[in-house]
Amino acid sequence: MRIGELARRAGVSTRALRYYEQQGLLPARRSSNGYRDYDEADLKLVSEIRSLLTVGFTLEDARPFVDCLRAGNEAGNACPESVEVYRRKLAEIDEQIRTLLGRRAEVASQLADACPRCAIRTGATT
Amino acid sequence: MRIGELARRAGVSTRALRYYEQQGLLPARRSSNGYRDYDEADLKLVSEIRSLLTVGFTLEDARPFVDCLRAGNEAGNACPESVEVYRRKLAEIDEQIRTLLGRRAEVASQLADACPRCAIRTGATT
DNA sequence: GTAACCCTTGACATCAACGTCAATGTCAAG
DNA sequence: CTTGACATTGACGTTGATGTCAAGGGTTAC
């Protein structure tokens, strides 16, 4: 299939697909006229990339998963490198949550200071 | 005082101070030689901006606080506009936390799928 | 042959809060 | 009078994942 169809089926823009190719995540065969030519495996790759992006992974984070799929595995997370990325991202997310909880507490505290009556329905005390 | 001293005392770069001025947050008087001339009130403004930035506010978010201080209030959060920003940011932070918790759960679930033994020490089950 | 789509590459634009140069001016001390 | 520490404005670079436009070529249908 050509880029337009893959884009439609994967729910992404053609621009995004070309960008993935440029980043080395989605190499494309070419038809005799120079058009990119994709198959079902490529659709699976793009789906994998998309689902990883939606949980906050970068394209770099997604690379091991893509490599894993291209290596013939049925799942992108079937390789130790992918698992390692999962663990790292989990730690990053936890750190971000901690940061946000700290900020939440600080802002809530400031709000309580500035407008004591506003704090009533805020829940968290510390 | 001149920009270098304010920067040192506030713990920011001179570039940042010029940027704040450009954004209309920190107007500066000028000496006869064209140098920016700041006073203690300006230090207070910059401190306010900095503490807001560190809890994730943008400069736009900080504007009401700065305006409030410049209007003669002793605290930047003494104005209703500032309080409103607090409330909005609190809601934003809560939303971000919810998003991150969802992602955490998703990633943890994927990790458990990919490497069942890895999930043992993860705590969250859902 | 021409409209109507599809494709190609290339390159600049976006967002925020600055970092980092460049080229130049000011001023106190030696 | 020069060195050196400060200041000025202006402008491009950073980060990530695209959006968007330009200028052109390919393919199919009528």
UniProtKB/TrEMBL annotation, chains A, B:
Taxonomic superkingdom: Bacteria
UniProt key word Transcription: yes
Keyword Signal part of the UniProt annotation: no
UniProt cross-references to SMART domains, sorted A to Z: HTH_MERR
Keywords from the named record: DNA-binding, Transcription, Transcription regulation
Pfam families found in the cross-reference section: MerR_1
InterPro entries: DNA-bd_dom_put_sf, MerR-type_HTH_dom, MerR_fam
Residue ranges annotated for the HTH merR-type domain, each copy included: 1-68
Protein name: MerR family transcriptional regulator
Organism: Sphaerisporangium corydalis
